[in-house]
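Hi team,

Filling in the usual template for the complex we talked about on Friday. All components are listed, including any nucleic acid strands or ligand strings, so the model treats them as one assembly.

SUBMITTER: L.P.
PURPOSE: interface mapping
COMPONENTS: two
RESIDUES: 230
SEQUENCES:
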Amino acid sequence: DTAVSQTPKYLVTQMGNDKSIKCEQNLGHDTMYWYKQDSKKFLKIMFSYNNKELIINETVPNRFSPKSPDKAHLNLHINSLELGDSAVYFCASSHLFPTPAYEQYFGPGTRLTVT
Amino acid sequence: AQSVAQPEDQVNVAEGNPLTVKCTYSVSGNPYLFWYVQYPNRGLQFLLKYITGDNLVKGSYGFEAEFNKSQTSFHLKKPSALVSDSALYFCAVRELSGGSYIPTFGRGTSLIVHP
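RESULT (copied from the run log):
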């Protein structure tokens, strides 16, 4: 009965590789998000999709490409991984419209380590 | 642009004592304010939110927060701290920006409750 799930939980890879992280929510929410949490625990939004439409696209290298095949899934593909990409990536979901008053539900995170 | 400040990196309190975790915000319109908690190696969990109405908001696990518009603050409080409350706490705000409700998180405050 997991609400927001992410796979994999841990990802260790070498510089230059391409990797993907998958996220699924079973809460019936219309909006999903990707966040990056760095080693100092600072949390920064990267992308958000509402009903499969990209609505938030913060200053993120274009090596990062989100894809939302449907409302319940949001994947993150990263090309040419760099050392600085090492972080914990969180997926989240929420209702959004008609107001932004809804809280977000977060997945357990994917710890990406680039060597 | 909206912003959130959590002035304390760490708050230490003895079990049984009241606790306060501070948050101030800056928005151009009406704020939507949230508190989340993150336990080690876990995703964020929603605690409470202020949208409108009563300035004192009650949330999960006995936490409450007071919205103060004149001081642009939204401090998190609990009358009697538990060791199990030890975690990382994030204040967040959402405001309309560029057609989307961008969520902005504070840098987090580590709460340590001593037995």
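MY TAKE: Chain A is about 0% helix and 55% strand. The mean pLDDT of chain A is 93.

Thanks, L.
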